[in-house]
Specification:
By secondary structure, the chain is α+β, with helices and mostly antiparallel strands. The chain is built from seven helices and 16 strands. Helix 1 runs parallel beside helix 7. The longest helix is centred in the middle third of the chain and has 23 residues.
Length: 298
């Protein structure tokens, strides 16, 4: 039986800090409380319907990756155990369980840190037009979904809700953040990706690309937000991989493909999603969580 879909939260005794495309964020003392709703954003437009289990998958899979990568870089996670949350959160425990994280309050580094191991999505589109991604000149003759010899770092802007992120060059990124911070987040991004993608291959999963966010906490760069989720990554089944075409995926690309098939103009208001698309997307989120972690939410 599907849990009740949570599209928005209301915790009157907690101070609302911000609402993102998917997360509602509350300020709790010196910490932030990140609550993953079941909202779905595609092409930077928030759909009117939610995806069952989605917020739980985002939280639990991030928790898994935070633990796996903590030897590379520290992260903002304090706990996901609602019993260890501050007292003012206690009466909301039922809503918070499995879909929230208590985290350190870091100052976010204002670029999206994208790493690509394979050429797909907006990177493939840019390459077809210019032969480059984010100012990085690539070999001629690459095919869609082809693996790069080495992962490439292709930062983008961090757009406000409703606006689109734009791929930018390293020089453009260093006009937004200083060179030392740029080099540090670039190295961390590639190192986390290499460790995670090597691990995922042992589970029969290709991580084609993903994006990370970083923050500064007590003068240290740390990993924040979500990590290697189906919202922030492209996950492909290894046994069905074949370069030269788009790939089957375990992420919200499934929804993007549906929206493209009905010629969605990528602007609000969003069209309604059929039950079949909603349920299939939920299955994909649950499936990738189980394949990668060995755990089940159902």
């Amino acid at each position: 039986m599907n849990p009740e879909v949570l599209l928005t939260t209301s915790f009157p005794k907690l101070k609302l800090y911000a609402r993102g495309k998917v997360r509602d964020i509350y300020e709790v003392g010196e910490y932030l409380l990140l609550v993953s709703t079941d909202r779905l954003s595609a092409f930077d437009v928030i759909m009117n319907q939610g995806i069952p289990y989605k917020g739980m998958v985002l939280t639990k899979i991030s928790e898994f990756w935070f633990d796996l990568t903590k030897d590379i870089i520290s992260n903002h996670l304090v706990t996901t155990d609602v019993n260890k949350y501050p007292d003012e959160c206690k009466e909301y425990s039922a809503s918070l369980k499995n879909r929230s994280m208590l985290v350190k309050k870091a100052k976010v580094v204002p670029i999206e840190c994208i790493v690509r191991g394979y050429i797909s999505g907006s990177g493939w589109n840019d390459y077809k037009k210019t032969g480059s991604i984010s100012g990085i000149k690539l070999p001629e003759g690459l095919k869609e979904s082809e693996k790069f010899h080495q992962p490439i770092f292709t930062p983008s802007t961090k757009a406000e809700i409703g606006a689109h992120d734009e791929n930018i060059s390293a020089d453009e990124a260093m006009q937004i953040i200083d060179k030392n911070t740029f080099e540090e987040v670039k190295d961390a991004t590639i190192n986390i990706y290499k460790k995670a993608s090597d691990y995922a291959l042992t589970k029969g999963i290709i991580i084609a690309d993903t994006k990370f966010e970083f923050g500064k906490f007590k003068n240290e760069i740390i990993l924040v937000d979500e990590v290697l989720t189906p919202d922030s990554s492209r996950f492909w089944p290894l046994d069905k991989y074949e370069k030269g075409r788009g790939q089957e995926s375990y992420d919200k690309q499934f929804v993007r493909d549906y929206l493209l098939s009905i010629n969605f103009n990528k602007q609000p208001p969003p069209p309604p999603l059929p039950d079949e698309i909603i349920n299939k997307t939920s299955e994909k989120y649950l499936d990738i969580y189980k394949k990668l972690t060995g755990n089940s939410l159902v």
